[in-house]
């Protein structure tokens, strides 16, 4: 087990990020906490252990578990086990499990200890760090939740071995997004050079990949822990276009593929508006394509009305206008509205590069 | 409307406490917030307005409303009204309404604006200030909640006119408790001198009473906003004995009467243990009696086992031992375990002073 870094977040709370050599190393570390511990899994991540820890909650896997009934289940187990305020909740899984475990920890006796063990690439580089917790409510994503950074995030690369390819690519899209947002070119170059090792999930390569990607997220969230300064929002690069595509449901690829597609649309928009360096946009688009994302996809003309409808529901709004994250160049992002005629052109017309 | 004081709490968040001349003054202030507002009442406090504000939730009155279903009702209304993250939830009522409104505000979109309008004396001097929010869960009080200080607390003394006597005495017990915990004797002396005006709820007298009492709570919570330093716990003076009595259910008086009784038991214990100044304990006991609390009440021998059982469930524990708040003298409190034989003697035997 080695300590990777520490992030200081809202409230002066610190999250320590630890890298375990393997699952055994990780269990040993967590075993030392003794009895006042409640584990949260989902049906898939529960199978990663030969023997489940004694006090556990296993949620159904998938987004539909992010609701009040899962929250009450976790809390109810904590009460039944007689856990006190100094107990620890351990979330072991992807973003769904970690969001649920963290929300429960934030309200159990007004806040107990929290360890997150992310087991998807997306959760390692994104969901487990930053303190956002949430459940979906009345069909709306992440509508109810809290800011509650984990005390520690334990990452064991070997958990990624069993991750389905589609889930792996979900995470990888966020990694590439982080590469664009980074203040230096290290991650970007690593992605260019190490493509084969990354796609074959070489453990050592993964460690570097996760480390570099996490550093980018940390850089943004430390400056704006509760997303009130417009800095942290930049991490939503690609998500405005991406969510509209994802929620319109005509595109059968995963969340990551939508984010990749959305990021490239934002790059094109920026070029069109004279904001984004064209050579940079072309290079970044090529990088996404090299990892197999369907960047050239366009929606049908008949789907435009619905797409626009979904877009208008985005939360990043100012005076009723949706704000998009646009890139100027490496690491330099700005928030801007985009003319709807341009949006329509970008999502329907043939690619310009 | 005049500003009384500002308390700085967890996260650097500030609560401004405002005193309104009357309900009309208060409505005018809140009216200026426009449309992005959701009001929370209970069945009794909803009747204090001639016309209810347009967007509101009316909970059943009483402790049984502090649950997940009330929470979901408030959040569901917020979603249905299309409220955004910069909306405001206004809790208008006693501790139940204010705890519910505050918990909902703390999790709606990970935190929206919050105004509390306490309409019971207890809520004015205690529940509305300090940032604790909670619901009861699986029969356990305040098991689930958050720390989320209101941005503003608006107090209008005229709301107290309709408050039932029993509820008024609930609050008054906390006021007298604050008088003992205060760093100066102003509130204590005010209670001695102004008894008639206080009991007849003279509006000007109430303003001074609430102002002095609030200042004591503020003094303690500012030093220990999230109750992690053992300072804020001192505000539980009288509550360990009091809760055990209240929850054993043999005593039909209210929460405040139990706190008054419990505070006097803690004073006696302190005298017995050589911790509390005897003259001080006698004076304070007399003060409680002068306000009509049944301080001489003792439990029957047959009820001791149950009382002890309830006591052992108290949350203020260290190494399995229940800790009691004991007074040394005016404003000086300590946390100590008490020998069970002494506890038994104090709650069963005839009063010693
Ligand atoms: N809190 C945040 O800051 C934040 C950031 C980004 C995303 N999120 C949230 O994260 C969620 C998405 O996270 P996710 O993509 O990890 O989804 P997920 O948790 O649903 O995991 C995806 C799938 O992979 C399975 N799985 C997880 N680990 C596995 C492993 N090691 N081997 C085999 N299968 C495994 C899961 O059971 C699930 O079926 C969303 O709800 C999103 O809102 C939160
Ligand atoms: N958050 C905190 O720090 C904190 C501190 C102390 C107590 N509390 C909580 O507060 C609650 C108790 O508060 P409470 O004593 O105000 O109880 P409450 O809110 O139930 O009010 C008591 C009764 O008075 C009625 N009422 C309220 N205002 C009225 C008015 N102006 N006129 C007529 N009737 C009125 C209510 O409808 C209710 O029936 C408990 O749940 C307790 O846990 C919280």
TrEMBL record, chains A, B:
Q: Which SUPFAM superfamilies match?
A: Dehydroquinate synthase-like (SSF56796)
Any idea which UniProt keywords this protein has? Amino-acid biosynthesis, Aromatic amino acid biosynthesis, Cobalt, Lyase, Metal-binding, NAD
Q: Out of the domains of life, which is the source?
A: Bacteria
Q: Which residues form the 3-dehydroquinate synthase N-terminal domain?
A: 57-168
| InterPro entries reported in the protein's UniProt record | Dehydroquinate_synthase (IPR050071), DHQ_synth_fam (IPR030963), DHQS/DOIS_N (IPR030960), DHQS_C (IPR056179)
Q: Which cofactor does it need?
A: NAD(+); Co(2+)
Recorded GO MF terms: 3-dehydroquinate synthase activity; metal ion binding
- Keyword Metal-binding on entry: yes
Q: Which Pfam families match?
A: DHQ_synthase, DHQS_C
Q: Which residues are in the 3-dehydroquinate synthase C-terminal domain?
A: 171-317
- Positions the record marks as coiled coil are none
Which Gene Ontology BP annotations are present?
amino acid biosynthetic process; aromatic amino acid family biosynthetic process
Stated name of the protein: 3-dehydroquinate synthetase
